[in-house]
C-alpha cells in the first residue's frame, strides 16, 4: 500500500518538495509504482522523497521532471532544498516529534530549541549568519521551523518533556546579558509547567557524565522508541532498539546523576542573577 504519511509543506523546503511531487503524481492518476516505472526509481524511494525522509537529489529531480513532463520545475525546486539550512534527517524527526507522547532531551552548550526565547533563537541564528555558516534566508527558515516546533508543545494532550541540560547551557552567554537573563527566566518558568521536567548536569559530574553529545529520545503513542542525533552535516533518526535502547539507559543514568529539578532551578536562577 502506498505511503500516505501526513505532509506539511510549510515544515521545510524538503517537505514542500515532497508535497508537490505527490500532488503532481496524483494529478496524473499515477500510483507510486507507476512513477517508479517511468522514472527508474523504486516506489519506496519515491515514497521517501514524498514524505521527506529521502532528499531529492539532482539525479532524481531530473528523472522526475522527464517522467512527469514538468520541464525543469522539480529540478529547480530540488536545488532549493539542497540549499536549506535544515539538516538531512531533521524534517523526518520533526514529524515524529509532533506526534510523540514523551520527549527526552540532553543538550550541551546551547539551550534546547524547544525552550529558546525568540531573542535567544535570533541571537543563535544571527551568529551563524555572521560566521557565514548560513544565509539570512536560511536563518529565517530555521526560525520559522523552531516556532512551529514550540507551538506543538501546546497540543492536546500535552506531551511530557524531560530535559537534562549540561551546565554549559546556562553558563554560555548568548545574545548579551539581557537576552541571557530573559532566557534563564524562561527556563525556570518552563520547569514549573506540569508536563515538563528540567534538570542541570553540573560540571562537577566529571567522569560520571553518561552522554557526551546532544541526543533526543522520543516515545510514540504505541510505546515505540526513537532516537535523534546530529553530526556536523546530517541528522539521523534511529528506530533500531539495539541502538536506541542503550541511549535510553545512558539518558536515565545521566538523569539520576543530574541535580534535582528544585536544585536545578536554583542554579538557573543563580546564573540569571549573575547576568545583571
Question: How do the strands of the widest beta sheet line up side by side?
Answer: 3-2-1-4-5-6
CATH class assignment of the largest domain:
Alpha Beta
Order of helices and strands: HHHHHHEHHEHHEEEEHH
How many strand units? 6
Would you tell me the overall average pLDDT? Answer: 89
Question: Which homologous superfamily in CATH is the superfamily of the largest domain?
Answer: Endonuclease Chain A
What structural class should be given to the helix and strand makeup?
A: alpha/beta
Shape: elongated
| Major sheet characteristics | 6 strands, mixed
Estimate the helix proportion, in percent: 40-55%
CATH topology of the largest domain: Endonuclease, Chain A
Q: Oligomeric state of the chains?
A: single chain
Supply Rg: 21 Å
**What is the count of distinct domains?**
2
**Terminal Cα span:** 59 Å
- CATH architectural type of the largest domain: 2-Layer Sandwich
Residue stretches low in confidence (pLDDT < 50, at least 5 long) are none
Work out the strand percent: 5-15%
* Number of contiguous helices: 12
Amino acid at each position: 500500500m502506498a505511503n500516505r504519511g501526513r505532509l506539511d509543506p510549510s515544515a521545510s523546503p524538503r517537505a514542500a518538495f515532497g508535497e508537490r511531487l505527490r500532488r503532481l503524481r496524483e494529478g496524473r492518476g499515477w500510483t507510486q509504482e507507476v512513477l517508479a516505472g517511468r522514472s527508474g526509481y523504486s516506489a519506496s524511494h519515491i515514497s521517501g522523497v514524498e514524505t521527506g525522509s529521502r532528499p531529492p537529489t539532482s539525479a532524481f529531480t531530473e528523472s522526475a521532471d522527464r517522467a512527469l513532463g514538468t520541464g525543469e520545475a522539480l529540478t529547480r525546486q530540488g536545488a532549493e532544498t539542497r540549499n536549506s539550512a535544515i539538516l538531512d534527517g531533521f524534517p523526518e524527526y520533526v514529524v515524529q516529534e509532533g506526534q510523540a507522547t514523551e520527549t527526552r532531551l540532553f543538550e550541551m552548550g546551547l539551550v534546547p530549541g524547544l525552550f529558546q526565547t525568540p531573542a535567544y533563537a535570533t541571537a543563535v541564528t544571527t551568529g551563524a549568519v555572521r560566521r557565514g555558516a548560513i544565509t539570512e534566508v536560511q536563518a529565517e527558515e530555521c526560525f520559522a521551523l523552531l516556532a512551529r516546533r514550540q507551538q506543538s508543545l501546546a497540543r492536546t494532550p500535552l506531551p511530557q518533556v524531560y530535559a537534562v541540560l549540561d551546565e554549559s547551557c546556562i553558563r554560555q552567554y548568548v545574545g548579551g546579558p539581557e537576552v541571557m537573563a530573559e532566557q534563564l527566566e524562561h527556563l525556570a518558568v518552563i520547569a514549573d509547567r506540569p508536563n515538563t521536567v528540567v534538570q542541570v548536569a553540573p560540571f562537577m559530574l566529571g567522569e560520571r557524565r553518561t552522554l557526551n553529545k546532544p541526543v533526543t529520545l522520543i516515545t510514540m503513542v504505541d510505546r515505540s522508541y526513537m532516537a535523534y542525533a546530529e553530526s556536523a552535516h546530517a541528522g539521523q533518526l534511529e528506530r533500531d532498539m539495539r541502538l536506541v535502547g542503550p541511549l535510553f539507559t545512558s539518558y536515565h543514568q545521566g538523569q539520576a546523576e543530574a541535580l534535582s529539578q528544585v536544585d536545578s532551578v536554583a542554579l538557573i536562577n543563580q546564573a540569571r542573577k549573575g547576568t545583571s
